[in-house]
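Batch manifest, entry 17 of 40.
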Amino acid sequence: MFIPFENLPDDSKVWIYQSNRKLTDNEVAEIEADIMVFLENWLAHGTSLEASFAVKYNRFIVLAVNQEVQAATGCSIDASVQFIQKLEKKYDVTLLDKMNVTFKIGEHIAHKSLIDFKKMVKEKAVNENTIVFNNLVNTIEEFNEDWEIPAGESWHGRFF
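Output type: structure tokens
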């Protein structure tokens, strides 16, 4: 069951999927429609999940579940991954590769492999103050507070 993202409690579980490229506005509109259909039918042990989503910067898909109502289970999480895999195929994007870093260079959002990001650190093209997207956050509260943070304050800080 779809709930507006801002109406979910702060301790709701989130999963963040970053695209290897910027999605067009038309693709985002189609993806949002696909997500709505998925969320309306997303179940855990036959019980509807109170869930929502956000698409940020035409690059990130954030799924969220209010675990107080019904926790996402292994099967329901598998279903969401299968849904994301279908989006990957439909739009020829990579959403599940966790070995990439997405960060801001001014207002531009860059997406690099972890190896390339480490090279950029060595070349001083990025530094501890570079804003990175910490896709390891687990809740809406962490998403709101710790998703966009200086690299030196995230797991990326180990590269400096």
